[in-house]
Specification:
Blueprint: H1 29-36, E1 49-51, H2 56-66, E2 70-75, E3 78-84, H3 85-92, E4 109-110, E5 115-116, H4 121-131, E6 136-139, E7 145-149, H5 151-163
Parallel strand pairs: 1-2, 5-6
Antiparallel strand pairs: 2-3, 3-4, 6-7
């Protein structure tokens, strides 16, 4: 490889491919919002967290007290799973007599699908639909949990977009 001297032969003109980019034509405002808006634009808080070694009964109590359907399960400030009302019904019901003092990690959904706050809203909808989840953790660029995406929160966002709020 050789270094080019200043004033040497000119390089071919660079053409930025994005200068020829035409904005897509969307059928309606909903399609445009889904494609163009980011998960960060959706209200993804509040959210609740619990440590993976906390008791399952504490998790169930927190869900009930806060009238929520999902807890982020954390270990050393890292997301390791989610614990949902579905986990209560599907997993705790099987071992009803002995689950109270067992740790949440035994009943949580491990390694959940996540979205980034810089992903499009359509990406979040896709994860919810394809994975069959009702709650998807939202991570920032440092992989810190900053929110939770759900169908209700996304629908609220879309309604506000259509209303021009």
């Amino acid at each position: 490889m050789t270094l080019r001297e200043p004033g040497g032969p000119a390089e071919p003109d660079f053409v930025d491919p994005l200068t020829c980019y035409d904005r897509p034509n969307y059928r309606d405002e909903v399609e445009a919002a889904l494609a163009e808006m980011l998960v960060a634009d959706v209200k993804t808080v509040p959210l609740a967290m619990i440590a993976s070694d906390d008791r399952a009964s504490d998790a169930v109590q927190r869900l009930a007290e806060h009238h929520i359907a999902c807890l982020m399960v954390m270990e050393e400030n890292q997301l390791v799973g989610v614990f949902t009302e579905r986990d209560v019904l599907m997993k705790l019901a099987e071992s009803y007599d002995d689950w109270h003092d067992r740790p949440v990690r035994e009943f949580m959904t491990p390694r959940p699908a996540v979205v980034s706050e810089s992903d499009s809203v359509a990406s979040a909808v896709c994860v919810l639909a394809v994975q069959g989840y009702r709650h998807v953790p939202v991570l920032d660029v440092d992989d810190e949990v900053v929110g939770i995406a759900s169908p209700n929160r996304i629908l609220d966002f879309l309604q506000k977009q259509l209303a021009g709020e």
